[in-house]
């Protein structure tokens, strides 16, 4: 180490000014670079100039292995049951001072608290990794034109970041707020040949050598199981199910009968009954294209033109209102409600006469 420092003072102010004017990069001088410095001495004897003397020193810049994997946006990824191609987004940055390959693995956590809260409760299917392809249709977002990664990023140059997507399919039948945690880990590998994953990298131990030594400089530990200064880094993200949770109730009221009319009517033949089918959504996502079907019993006759859709519920009680719609194809009354937002309810109302 002494030989590397002894002659640094001989570089002089001119050389230091040159260094200060150079652009600053996170990775610094490229590993393997030979830095040479020559000092000169001019002198006289008896007023007569003598031959210039010089001494040189050179050393090889060692390799600093540093990388960063970070989730983009720091938010959970909302998904719905049965969704294909659910995307979580990460960024990998090569902060080393050498072009390297990076082995990639995407794993799922097993239980415990996910990175954005909630308890990991399911595993996604068909998990794979993609690299953002700037020539495809959506830069920064996953699309079919992006490149699926088969194990590693090849030849990632110094001070370069690449956008990565962990893409998975979500199982059907999951409850609202179910969570699946995922982690993306990158491990530095030798640059090697283009198109071939380089070998594992080992940190140099002991005293500094004359050659290109290796130092692991990833000082920040990543996700669980990823220690500092191990040549790898990782981060977590998660999928959170946001779906509709529907509850259906059916109520009825007597409108009239042929004896009492609307004054305290009774359920006698000829009485008109009004039904209300209420659908309440207690989930965190809207339920769309909600189709309600109700077969009219044989003891009743459907009253044409009586269907109302999209009515309201107040305090858990149907308001028996809405807009005309729906249809009747004996014996079924049916109607479609376009959307029932989270935390709301909507109704289908119709009338029938007791035979």
Short key terms for the protein model shown above:
single chain; 355 residues; mainly beta; Immunoglobulin-like; 3 domains; six-stranded antiparallel β-sheet; five-stranded antiparallel β-sheet; 2 helices; 46% strand; rod-shaped; disordered N terminus
Helix content: under 10%
Assess the beta-strand content as a share of residues: over 45%
**Sheet with most strands:** 6 strands, antiparallel
How many domains? The number is 3
What is the C-alpha radius of gyration, as a whole number of Å?
Answer: 36 Å
Q: Which assembly state applies to the chains in this document?
A: single chain
InterPro entries: DUF11_rpt, OmcB-like_DUF11
Organism: Sphingopyxis italica
Domain DUF11: 262-354
Protein name: Putative repeat protein (TIGR01451 family)
Would you write up a description of this structure?
- With 355 residues, this protein is mainly beta.
- It has 3 domains: 2-61, no CATH class; 65-241, Sandwich (Immunoglobulin-like), CATH 2.60.40; 246-354, Sandwich (Immunoglobulin-like), CATH 2.60.40.
- Helices cover 4% and strands 46% of the residues.
- The chain contains 2 helices and 27 strands.
- It has helices at 2-6, 12-21; strands at residues 34-41, 44-45, 48-49, 53-60, 63-65, 67-71, 77-79, 86-94, 100-108, 125-131, 147-148, 152-156, 160-169, 179-189, 214-216, 232-241, 246-256, 272-281, 287-295, 300-302, 308-311, 313-314, 317-318, 323-324, 327-329, 332-340, 345-354.
- The strands form 8 sheets. Strands 17, 18, 20, 21, 24 and 27 form a 6-stranded antiparallel beta sheet that branches. The protein has a 5-stranded antiparallel beta sheet with strand order 6-8-13-10-11, with no helix packed on it. Strands 7-16-14-9-12 form a 5-stranded mixed beta sheet, with no helix packed on it.
- β22 (313-314) and β23 (317-318) form a beta hairpin.
- It starts with a helix and ends with a strand.
- It comes from Sphingopyxis italica.
- Pfam families: DUF11.
- Residues 1-26 form the signal peptide.
- This is Putative repeat protein (TIGR01451 family).
- Residues 262-354 form the DUF11 domain.
């Amino acid at each position: 180490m002494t030989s590397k420092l002894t002659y640094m003072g001989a570089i002089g102010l001119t050389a230091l000014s040159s260094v200060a004017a150079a652009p600053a990069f996170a990775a610094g001088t490229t590993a393997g670079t030979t830095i040479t410095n020559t000092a000169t001495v001019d002198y006289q004897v008896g007023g007569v100039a003598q031959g210039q003397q010089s001494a040189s020193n050179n050393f090889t810049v060692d390799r600093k292995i540093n990388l960063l994997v970070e989730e983009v946006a720091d938010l959970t990824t909302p998904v719905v049951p049965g969704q294909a191609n659910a995307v979580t987004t990460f960024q990998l940055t090569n902060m080393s001072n050498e072009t390297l390959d990076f082995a990639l693995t995407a794993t799922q956590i097993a239980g415990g608290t996910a990175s954005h809260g909630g308890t990991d409760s399911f595993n996604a299917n068909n998990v794979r990794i993609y690299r953002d392809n700037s020539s495809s249709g959506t830069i920064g977002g996953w699309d079919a034109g992006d490149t699926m990664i088969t194990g590693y990023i090849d030849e990632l140059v110094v001070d370069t970041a690449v956008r990565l997507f962990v893409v998975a399919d979500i199982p059907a039948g999951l409850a609202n707020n179910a969570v699946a945690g995922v982690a993306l880990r990158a491990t530095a590998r030798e640059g090697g040949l283009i198109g071939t994953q380089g070998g594992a990298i080992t940190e140099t131990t002991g005293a500094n050598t004359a050659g290109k030594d290796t130092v692991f400089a990833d000082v920040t530990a990543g996700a669980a199981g990823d220690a500092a200064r191990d040549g790898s880094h990782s981060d977590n993200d998660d999928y959170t199910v946001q779906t509709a949770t529907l509850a259906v109730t059916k109520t009825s009221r007597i409108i009239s009968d042929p004896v009492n009319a609307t004054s305290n009517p009774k359920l006698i033949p000829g009485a008109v009954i009004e039904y209300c089918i209420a659908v309440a959504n207690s989930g965190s996502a809207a339920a769309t294209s909600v189709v309600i079907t109700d077969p009219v019993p044989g003891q009743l006759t459907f009253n044409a033109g009586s269907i109302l859709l999209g009515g309201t519920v107040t305090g858990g009680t149907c308001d028996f209102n809405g807009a005309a719609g729906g249809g009747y194809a004996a014996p079924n009354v049916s109607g479609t409600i376009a959307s029932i937002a989270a935390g709301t309810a909507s109704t289908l109302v119709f009338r029938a006469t007791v035979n």
